[in-house]
Amino acid sequence: MCGICAIIMENNNKNFPIGCLLFKMMESQQIRAQDSTGVAIFNNGSNKEEFYKIDYFRKNNGKYNQVTEKVPQERLDKTLYELTQDPNIVIASFAKEMNLLKDIGLVRDLDAKYKIKSIQGTHGIGHLRIATSSRVTPDHAHPFSTLVMPDIAVVHNGEITNYSKLRSSLELQGYRLFTRCDSEVIAVFIADQLLRHGDLEKANNEFIKKADGPFTYIVATPDSLALVRDRFGARKGIFGYNPCNRNCPSFWAMATDLSALDSVGATLYVETPPPGKPKIFKNKIMIEPIHN
Amino acid sequence: MNDADKFIIRKAVLELAKTGTPRFTSIDDDVRNLPKVNSKTINLWDYVTAIGAQLSRPPYDPYRETISLDISIGRKKSRKVSLNIPLIIYGNIAIHHSSLEAVHLALNRLAEKGNVLGLISEIDINTIKDNTRKYPLFKKVSFYKNDSLEHYQKSCPEGLVLEYKDQDSLKILQNFRKEFDGPILVDVSEVFPLYTKTILEEGADGIIVDTDKVTKKERYKGKHAIAVIYDARNAINDYYKGREENDNDNNTILVIAGDVNSAGKIVKAAALGANVVGYSTSMLIAHSNMYSEKPSNVSSIAENVYRHMVGTKGEIKGIPAALGYSDFHNLSPSDLRTSSIDASLQGNIPLEGVDRTYKEMIDEIVNEYVSEKGIKLNSLETQQILRLMVRE
Prior knowledge:
The structure holds 2 protein chains of 2 kinds. By secondary structure, chain A is of the alpha+beta class.
């Protein structure tokens, strides 16, 4: 019963506070889940200093302290090695352009803490979690990122039933996973595929082939979003378009519930992706036409 | 409660604490002076169960949804052989000619209905009157004969099975691999767990491990089939560690034979890491004809084997479906729970109630103690302490 949502601005527009759109969509779906909340917002070209941002949680007597480190390229390998050697550290995000914020509580709590409504960006994803198979802690909140490559984030609704099998196969390849949440596997799997061929659609098709169970997820990369449903279409997923108006530029929105699209006026060309076929949205110039 | 009752209960509790396993027999057996439970006779399969569907993991309906049992045998370079049921019939079916004929007829009938199983056979199917074959045959290579590949190809097998004995077996594998494009499975039961990596490096498409044979070896004394399956899967995983070819489509197949001869055990073995289960011919005929009142002629045995296999297929589909899987091969140890510390240690299976393996629990206790006392240990030292604590 988790809730997911995403926004991608048309024409690579990065000056609009899409945090407020995500906030509205998440609030309209808050009834679905209340355990934890999180967003990942991308702002292409904002990182002029060429550093990497590593967010992690340090566990100390059951408490979670969030720490952010800005690391230049030359110190990256050493820092990552040191962080991954500490069993009390859980990496939350590895980014260049991405701003990933998550915590336990409601979306209004997250906004009170991080002022998410004012964050500008080209695209972003949001998640509301009700825990089913793993614990309610900040490190188990979505979105999930990965150390495999920077700027990958995933929000997920459903269950990857063969999580253990996928996880062991990724671990055999040498990837490190930090939580017991099945959604983290999606992020690592997609990043591994992107490293191999760089094709987001192919990566998602490969995941659909390998993953079992009912799920819908949205994966965000520096220039695109993918909305993906399982082969049987057991979980919901919907997208719609908001043409440019006085208040905001045009954008595409994705969500679990139609109410979320309503809340931001993305009520044009509303569709649901066919089961097992990823729907890709790129933020370069114009999204692929889907008009009937 | 009188003193005698209290004594019996106390004794039972102490026995449980000492052995780590509940009593099989009635609590007043001691009073009746019946023989005591012998821990060696405990079958760990009975202490392993599959967890049911959960709120977040709704079951699929095996009668309406597609629950796939399909498996493809053959790595990247080999011609693939596909099975619709992950079972291979094996064993010395030459004991009686009618057994071979009955199994042949049953497998053909199953294949006609879309239920393709494999057969491992040492003798030729050509000796049967109607020898048209609709199922894949894995021809067993006799180690002591010095036959060429051509000899084994006379019966047009889809695959080969080679029994690994020593370095000479490796040479046969190397030679056959060069000329034969179908899958080659190597029975490693005689040498297990040694040489698995070498065998896979020489291009074997899978290994066959007979748990009955392996548990009789000194190395596995007192261990159960569960430990053998777990170790066999780990041996294959070790080969793939860090390799990019680790992929479901190109993976080495693990065939588990021996003590896996019922639907429940097939599912548990698959969860522990078996891809295909070897079903002994004699066991198959015994199981399928157990309740038969008809005289045992070839056609009635074939009919019973056919029905038994169709029934087994239904049963092994049902359990993964109830666990929320649409593919049988997605089962993993995390779908199992055990009430036995032994089973948890031997198969790395989570314990009931705590949902963690015994090793994980000990690991956590050691870590907590080490951090509380401010002791500095490297990973090797931690592993040594763990091994000592779980008496490995």
